[in-house]
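thread: overnight batch results

M.L. [08:02]
morning all. the overnight job finished for the chain we discussed friday. pasting input first so we're all looking at the same thing
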Amino acid sequence: MRTVRDLFEHYQTAVLQKDVDAFLSIFDSNIHVFAEGTPLRSRQNRLTWVLQKKAGQWKIVHEHTAAPIDHQSGKAILKR
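M.L. [08:03]
and the structure it wrote out:
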């Protein structure tokens, strides 16, 4: 993954094929993951990545996801 576009394409392919090893390969080895390997839920969210080039390849070194908030209720909108 020499370009950021390559990283996005790799991400898309890994997710569509449900290839966990390919998906994990785009993350830096020092990343901390807070999940047990099973799907907990799905939701509408925003995704932010911080990328760093290591050994000639782009890696995700930080990821943040957030759900939009309903301004009337103050609650997260978890489904469309």
